[in-house]
Amino acid sequence: MSQVFVFHDVRTTDLDASRRFYSELFGWPITESPAGPMFGMSDGLWGGFTPLAADDSRRPQWIPYVPVADVDAAAEQALALGARIVKPRIDLPPGSVVVIDEPGGATLALWQAASQ
User: Tell me: the pLDDT tens digits for 95-110?
Assistant: First the structure.
C-alpha cells in the first residue's frame, strides 16, 4: 500500500469547538456530507468528525485509517500480535473497516477499499 493513512476520524464531545479549532488552526474547509461534517485539504476530503455524548465511555481521540489488502487477515494478525478488537468488521459502501487497540492502547482502523 502506498498511502500510510487514507482517512482520519476525530471523535469529540464538542463538535462545534473541534470544527472551529481545526478550521482556524489549519485552514481546513469543513463541509457537510451524508456521513456528517468532513474536513480536508485542497486535494480532497480526508477526515470526518464523530460526535460523542459527554457521558460516552469512549474517549475523544483521532483514529487513523490504515489501508490493508485484506481486512480480515490484518485483524487476525493484529490479534495474534496482542491487539484487541474494538469494533468488529463493518462493511460500508466504499469498503470494510475493523477498529483495533494495539497492545499499547492506541486505537486505529484497518481499512480495505471495496475495489480490492
Answer: 999 999 999 999 999 9
- Answer whether CATH 3.40.640.10 is correct for domain 1-56: no
Q: Are 58 and 71 in contact (CB under 8 A)?
A: no
What pTM did the predictor assign? 0.85
Rounded to whole angstroms, the Cα distance separating 22 from 51 reads 15
CATH for the stretch 68-116: 3.10.180.10
Edge-first strand order for the sheet with 36-41 is: 30-33, 36-41, 44-51, 7-12, 61-67, 107-113, 95-101, 84-92
Q: In terms of DSSP H, where are the helices of the chain? A: 15-26, 71-80
* pLDDT tens, residue by residue, 63-103: 999 999 999 999 999 999 999 999 999 998 889 999 999 99
Query: Please, where in the chain does CATH 3.10.180.10 lie?
Result: 1-56, 68-116
Tell me the sheet residues that pair with 66: 110
